[in-house]
Amino acid sequence: MTLMTFVYLIAGLVLLVAGAEVLVRGAAKLAAQFGIPPLIIGLTVVAFGTSAPETAVSVQSAWNGSGDLAIGNVIGSNIANVLLILGITALVAPLLVSRQLIRLDVPLMIGASLLVYALAWDGSLSRLDGALLFAGVITYTVFLIVSSRREKKSEDADEFEAEYGLHETPKPYAWAINLGLLIAGLVLLVGGSNFLVEGAVQMARALGMSELVIGLTVVAIGTSLPELATSVMAAFKGERDIAVGNIVGSNLFNLLCVLGLASLVAPSAIPVAANALAFDFPVMIAVAIACLPIFFNGYSINRWEGALFVAYYAIYTTYLIAHSNDAPWLDAFQHAMLTFVLPLTAITLAVVGARAWHKQR
Questions:
Q1: The pTM is what?
Q2: What does residue 282 show for φ and ψ, rounded to 5 degrees?
Q3: What is the model's pLDDT at position 262?
Q4: Hey, which of 7, 11, 67, 121 would disulfide with 270, CB 3.0 to 4.6 Å?
């Protein structure tokens, strides 16, 4: 593995994070100048902007024929968003969970995860599958806009106005500056995705690991940095419900929009590895389902639950690396997971869910 591999990876990550920030700020201010309410901007431009790195990397990978990298990036990002990022954020400060997330958004995330799994069950994601997924994100976005207009929360609007400077009086030719920011953000995202994909492919070849594993780990964590920054900063500022909403919204966007666009632009149907269908997809679905009893338990995520999430992400990553390298202790590790860890987790989640349900009656 050469020095240039690390240069590509680091440069790609830096450009992706910077590009996402510049793109969101430019697009948010430009939308405000056209009279779009701040809350709508927050629900669409800002929420989707944090997933811009995943979009750029997966679309670029699909376009280049690296389907495993595109699939691994989305699955890995969704797992990392919940277990790693939400776990770290909960360790910073216990998080609040809104009732809408439990009643609507988390079930939608679970449903989208199952839908993608069903579409990929035949071993590929076709353009028709991509069109169906992309139609889903359009429907979800329209629903958000309509429902937010009915139940507009002034505190959310004030928050987005302050964060992105939407309350400031536009200066002359401000539209040109904001349009320039938007274009610059897109250029940075495209350049960053090119660097990151190239570096990831080189790393996979040098280490003898599959593109799927690299996508599930290195690329997934790298493209999830905007979500990490957004959620941790929200927790520090006391906006603890937004930290959770950002993760759930990002996961929905990854499944519907990112995979939808990647499937639409790919030269042919994106192949889905058998390993992903047998292991990584079920893990992603299990993580999504596990959110319900934990979120429902007092409508909060405590520090011990955050620590549990981070521990499970460490176990998941360890398994991926061990499996790809055929580690001699892999069989013992799998036996311990199947015999002790997973059953105990299932029992704990069932007890937590039952107690929370009993309290609500």
A1: 0.81
A2: -60, -40
A3: 93
A4: 67
